[in-house]
């Protein structure tokens, strides 16, 4: 139903100088659900995510976010979303606390101090509080960037390769944290990942893109059954 739809993308297309990068893409992401957007390099994932974040204008099609038209109300709707990627650095000389306070104010958090304390507790950021983010290890940076991504308690979270730069233990911890956070908050998560075991663990729905189009749709289970494969990595290699 309309009330639980976090994102609806309809007939979304984007061309660069007449060359299509995204072609007639359709999907819905619901509250409390994780949808994995998969594809080989160049398949169109980043272009799709950039349109969802209001950074690129579609050539045609529509994006509905939390019931509102993203193209008409993007600033208001972006307040209710957030984004995390290990490829984006936070200001390196600012301490962890300063960085998070900046984003808390940017998003107009009603009680920034309380929100910071809550996230510091959840993500064990206390010991890092006064450190410049430029001095953190990659695992520590990931925790801080996750805190930044959750600061506004987003109803929609876009995650681009969230565990790409992490050691296996930290990656495993992060996946558990995301699952737990989603169960508590009902946040809708759009996940771009090349790690198929991560997708099997986190995703309720999977879409595989190839040359700008969605070529496979279903739950992880449905994809395994349809292709008679034991794991998603094999399905992915068959299709993408
Ligand atoms: P990756 O996993 O490498 O990020 P991707 O699935 O995100 O790949 P996109 O970055 O969305 O793929 O690229 C889709 C297609 O659009 C590619 O052919 C790419 O060359 C093209 N493309 C992306 N951005 C631009 C741009 N700004 N100008 C021209 N072509 C672009």
UniProtKB/TrEMBL annotation:
Residue ranges constituting the ABC transporter domain according to the UniProt record: 7-236
Endpoints of the signal sequence: none
A GO molecular-function annotation: ATP binding
Pfam families named among the record's database cross-references: ABC_tran
Keywords for the protein's UniProt record, in alphabetical order: ATP-binding, Nodulation, Nucleotide-binding, Transport
Family of this protein: Belongs to the ABC transporter superfamily.
PANTHER family associated with the record: ABC TRANSPORTER ATP-BINDING PROTEIN, ABC TRANSPORTER ATP-BINDING PROTEIN NATA
Identification of the protein by name: ABC transporter ATP-binding protein
Organism (species): Fodinicurvata halophila
Upper lineage: Bacteria, Pseudomonadati, Pseudomonadota, Alphaproteobacteria, Rhodospirillales
């Amino acid at each position: 139903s309309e009330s639980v739809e976090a994102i609806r993308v309809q007939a979304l297309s984007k061309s660069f100088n007449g060359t299509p990068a995204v072609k007639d893409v359709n999907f819905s992401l619901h509250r409390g659900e994780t949808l994995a957007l998969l594809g080989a390099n160049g398949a169109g994932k980043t272009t799709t995510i950039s349109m969802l974040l209001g950074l690129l204008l579609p050539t045609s099609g529509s994006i509905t976010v939390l019931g509102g038209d993203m193209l008409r109300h993007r600033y208001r709707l972006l307040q209710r979303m957030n984004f995390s990627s290990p490829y984006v650095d936070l200001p390196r000389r600012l301490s962890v606390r300063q960085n998070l306070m900046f984003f808390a104010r940017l998003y107009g958090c009603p009680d920034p101090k309380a929100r910071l304390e809550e996230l510091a507790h959840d993500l064990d950021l206390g010991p890092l509080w006064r450190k410049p983010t430029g001095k953190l290890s990659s695992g520590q940076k990931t925790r801080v960037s996750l805190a930044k991504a959750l600061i506004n308690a987003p109803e929609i979270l876009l995650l681009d390769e969230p565990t790409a730069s992490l050691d296996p233990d930290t990656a495993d911890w992060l996946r558990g944290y995301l699952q737990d956070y989603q169960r508590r908050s009902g946040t809708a998560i759009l996940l771009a990942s090349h790690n198929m075991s991560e997708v099997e663990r986190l995703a309720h729905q999977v879409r595989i893109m190839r040359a700008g189009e969605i070529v496979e749709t279903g739950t992880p289970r449905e994809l395994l059954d349809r292709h008679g494969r034991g794991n998603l990595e094999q399905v992915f290699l068959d299709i993408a």
